[in-house]
């Protein structure tokens, strides 16, 4: 493999690793936010959009 081929392969590898890391971060953060929302709702907090008597 030529030097250019190694450079291209390394660039694709680093990019794939970065994208995979970002996707994992988003998925883990989403799960954490859902757990927080569930805990808040269990504690009695409600979303403003759930209020029936909005004037």
What does this structure look like?
The chain has 1 helix and no strands. It has one domain. With 55 residues, the protein is mainly alpha-helical.
Mean pLDDT: 90
The sequence of SSEs as H and E is H
The count of DSSP E runs of length 2 or more, i.e. the number of strands, is 0
Over all CA atoms, what is the radius of gyration?
22 Å
Give the count of structural domains: 1
Distance between the termini: 70 Å
**How does the helix and strand content classify structurally?**
mainly alpha
Q: How much β-strand is present in the residues?
A: under 5%
Q: Give the biggest sheet.
A: none
Low-confidence segments, given as residue ranges, are none
- Helical content (DSSP H or I, runs of 4+): over 70%
Rough outline: rod-shaped
Q: Indicate the multimeric state.
A: single chain
Question: How many helix segments?
Answer: 1
Keywords:
55 residues, mainly alpha, 1 helix, 73% helix
Brief characterization of the structure:
By secondary structure, the chain is mainly α. Helix content is 73%, strand content 0%. The protein has one domain (3-42).
Set out the fold topology.
Elements: H1 3-42
